Amino acid sequence: MRYRSLKFSVLLLNFLFISVFGFSQSTVKKDLFNHLITRVKGDLNKDGIPDQATVFQDTVNDQSPYRLQVLFGKPGGDYQLVMTSLKAISPQYPGGKNGYVDGGGFRSLEIKSNVLTINVDLLRGGFCNKFRYQNGNFELIGYTGGFSDGQGSMYHTDYNLSTGLLLETKENYETGKMLSNTRKIVKVRPLPKLRDFEPESEVYH
Length: 205
Description:
14% of the residues lie in helices and 45% in strands. It is mainly β. It has one domain (31-201). It is globular.
């Protein structure tokens, strides 16, 4: 009887150890976005109280993805989390740390004039996506980008999604000569929302 009791106690201790260890492991693995990349502050919802946006990175994951979060400021100085996205910023290593790297990637965040801007570098240029808090969501209202083809031409795009006005230019960056200049209206409705936004899915990139 004593042997059975001892055996049961050992089994119980093993079970508790495995359960606690497993829980602690799952807790650690659940949130590995512990490397702060940037934190910016500014008024996003036009209430006169500073809000903030942060970007954290999971450096353990092979792709080193980013997590973007937006927090609204409250009168007492606290913050309320209102939006989280794991897709709005492309991973640092889309193909893994041993995969192909094109030399571009996330550069910075900005909050200016109630607009949140995500700036991204390209190998020979860069682009930015601009979001405004309206209709209860952060909606994409603007895109600006430019890049070189490495063969003498520079391309620039300025797209106001609020009005639909799309401006595209091409110029010779050695002579400064304008090769083409187009202006058209391309309306997108509903406007893309930051919580669902994926940069690679947008055709105007």
